[in-house]
Design a protein that fits this description.
single chain; alpha/beta
């Protein structure tokens, strides 16, 4: 397990990984990565630095991007978009499970529950989340609208999770949800 060294804990670094064969080969523009950046820029009130990656639906490439963002870039939060369905090339959850030391299945359960309010095919989604060192990794769907819906469903727990793994509790602001922190 890696430990972050020398990281400025006042600055939250967020890794954004878009997983798409077509976007990574230039066939179409990545809209999901920018949607994630827009979302987090709206909800976090403290300074944020984004580290972006665009990779193909290849498990080794996804694993390498996640490890780089967690171990080298020292991102407290890493979010992926894409590759969570049942298609043969959808391997994001497998890559996430391979690099995480602890899985957090409640994130996927909650995102599917939220998504079911909008589409019956949400049961096909395999989003998950986990911890690698001091990084929280969350898998999200590839559609910008679904990204926002899923994040609104799990974000109340994200700041406290970041605190539990060694980061300061980041201040947030949203008209849709409020960050939860148990009373001590």
């Amino acid at each position: 397990m890696t430990q972050q060294s020398g990281q400025n804990h006042d600055l939250l670094k967020i890794g954004v990984v878009t997983i798409s064969d077509r976007a990574s080969s230039g066939i179409y523009e990545d809209r999901s990565g920018p949607a994630l950046i827009e979302y987090f820029s709206e909800v976090f009130r403290s300074p944020i630095q984004f580290e972006k990656r665009l990779v193909a639906d290849e498990q080794r490439e996804i694993e390498a991007a996640l490890c780089d963002l967690a171990d080298i870039e020292e991102c407290g939060l890493i979010v992926t978009t894409g590759g969570t369905g049942p298609a043969p090339r959808d391997v994001t959850p497998e890559a996430t499970a391979a690099v995480c030391h602890k899985l957090l299945p409640g994130f996927g359960e909650q995102m599917r529950q939220v998504s079911l309010q909008y589409v019956p095919t949400a049961i096909l989604s395999r989003q998950t989340a986990g911890i690698r060192g001091m990084s929280l990794i969350i898998n999200l769907p590839g559609q910008p609208k679904a990204i926002r819906q899923c994040l609104d469903g799990v974000m109340p727990a994200v700041p406290y999770c970041l605190e539990l793994i060694g980061w300061p509790f980041p201040p947030t602001e949203s008209p849709v949800w409020q960050a939860f922190r148990p009373k001590k």
